[in-house]
Amino acid sequence: MRNPSSSGGTKTPCCIKVGLKRGPWTPEEDELLAGYINREGEGRWRTLPKRAGLLRCGKSCRLRWMNYLRPSVKRGQIAPDEEDLILRLHRLLGNRWSLIAGRIPGRTDNEIKNYWNTHLSKKLISQGIDPRTHKPLNPETQNSSSNPPAKAPSAKPAPRPRSPNPSPISSGLEETSSGSPAIIKVNDQLQSANNMEAVYQNGTAAAHGGQAGYLPGAEHYHVMGLRSSHHGLSNEEEEDLNCGGDDVFSSFLNSLINEEAFPIQHQLQQQAIGSSSDSDPMAAAPVFGIGTGWESAIMSSVINQDNNSRRVNEQVK
DNA sequence: AAGGGCCTCAACCGCTTGTGC
DNA sequence: GGCACAAGCGGTTGAGGCCCT
Question: Would you tell me which residues have their CB within 7 A of strand B?
Fold first, then answer.
């Protein structure tokens, strides 16, 4: 795909540095990689290419496996319900594609990211919705067919400073001085969701021992309620993880995703039916109450989760 | 038919995070 | 605490196909 000679940065890409192959994968390479991983399993990507007999860097192998060769990867069109889920999750999580992908079986973060950038963001813009904040665009630009924003810079996610806990919500708060209280509430709640994620990551970090075959992020995905069939655990182990794991964040996310969990909002939506666009994401924006009590549930469940993870890790050993 | 522009998405890059020593 | 290494993540790129004129 990309021209190797086009990478003219100050740093030399690893693949060029060691004279490895770049660009599109050939069927032969796919076969080599898939065959090796099926025999030996995932992991140790840095040394995998040499062991598998591939002239690729480990990163490239990992990406090819994760995004294309992995058996669980679903190919083909994004279904309408998947699209709706992506929209809802993006409203909740922002550009956190791996988190979004984790909740959509068979879809990869790359695929969802591409689909968002090429389809959904444009769709939102055409509906007068800012794809970054899920808030209405400037009313002046709204419903303005003479000034289509298809190629507007906002169609692509704006570069954001990297941070340990990137918060898509911050972008939603930028204009809250003029925004509605409902949006502020939403964003407060979502910020809490981000914090919750951090709690979970911290809470399970101790259980992430360096066992052979351990896939970083696999338990994290589980904890986050992200069903992943490629984490290297058997069904029994996965069930063990599920059992008693609480998966509160997953439940929380589900409750956010499911509008039925928001009676007020649902009521508003019912009222809005017929009077506004049925696919208006803002019409589906949940209106949160304060003090749901989930935070304490999270904290207690973290302890259970941690203990449970330790137990499972012992079994894996 | 041609060719220019647009669109899609696989692949890459740079950075961050986690872990072991 | 600092360093090195492995892995994951989000942003970006560009080849190839499609569409329009």
Answer: A 1-2, 7, 9-11, 13-16, 22-25, 56-57, 59-60, 63-64, 67-68, 110-111, 113-115, 117-119, 122, 150-151, 162-165, 201, 205, 208-210, 216
Name the pTM for this structure.
0.58
- To which residue do tokens 């000679």 refer? A5
Instruction: Judge whether residue A41 has pLDDT over 70.
Output: yes
Q: Residue A210: pLDDT above 50?
A: no
Whether A44 CB is under 7 Å from strand C: yes
The pLDDT of residue A283 is: 37
Distance A298 CA to C4 C1' (A): 34
The CATH number fitting domain A76-142, selected from 3.40.50.300, 1.10.10.60, 1.10.10.10, 3.20.20.70: 1.10.10.60
The reply to whether A212 Cβ lies less than 7 angstroms from strand C is no
Return the domain boundaries, chain A. Answer: 13-69, 76-142, 179-317
Residue type, A47: T
**Spatial contact of A129 and A137, defined as CB atoms under 8 Å apart:** yes
A304 close to A246: Cβ distance less than 8 angstroms: yes
Distance A46 CA to C5 C1' (A): 10
**Is the model's pLDDT at A252 over the cut of 70?**
no
Best-predicted range by mean pLDDT (A84-88, A151-155, A246-250, A290-294):
A84-88
Calculate the angstrom distance between C1' of B3 and CA of A73: 37
Same fold: A13-69 with A76-142: yes
**Superfamily covering domain A13-69:** Homeodomain-like (1.10.10.60)
Helical H segments across chain A, by residue range: 14-17, 27-40, 48-52, 58-64, 80-93, 97-102, 109-115, 121-126, 169-173, 181-205, 218-223, 235-242, 248-257, 263-272, 294-316
pLDDT of res. A138: 67
What is the average pLDDT score of chain A? 55
